[in-house]
Amino acid sequence: MSNITTLYDVPADMLIDGVKEELKNDKNLTPPEWATFVKTGSSREKVPDQDDWWYIRAASIMRKIYVYGPVGVESLRVDYGGKKNRGVKPEIFKKSSGAIIRKIFSQLEKAGYISKAEEGRIISPQGMSLLDRKASEIKSQISSDIPELKKY
What we know:
two-stranded antiparallel sheet, 5 helices, alpha+beta, Arc Repressor Mutant, subunit A, 47% helix
């Protein structure tokens, strides 16, 4: 059995945070002008609190494509959707914005992290390498910082 670290070996939030920092340095991934004003779906009341939410979403989409791929826009719209507060009426589920996901798809494809397949998008070898490398860095950092967390 080999000791290769993959994204399955580290907590998702830590991996997404690490990949987000890598994506910030990629010139192919830049939030569009409208990203500062837009909500991420009709179920949201306000725009995202984080200034770097575009990179967080891109890193999260990369992780989802790696784990569940091939993945399409509609399945991710459901994943990122939520319940809409309708006041006195019962809440109903609303999908998230498809435009954001499509734009991130095109940027990740341009950067070479994902590619098109018949049933949706799949992770490319370059994207897989980035995620696994970040996971390896995070795992070594965790095991050196907190010995009890060596199980991750």
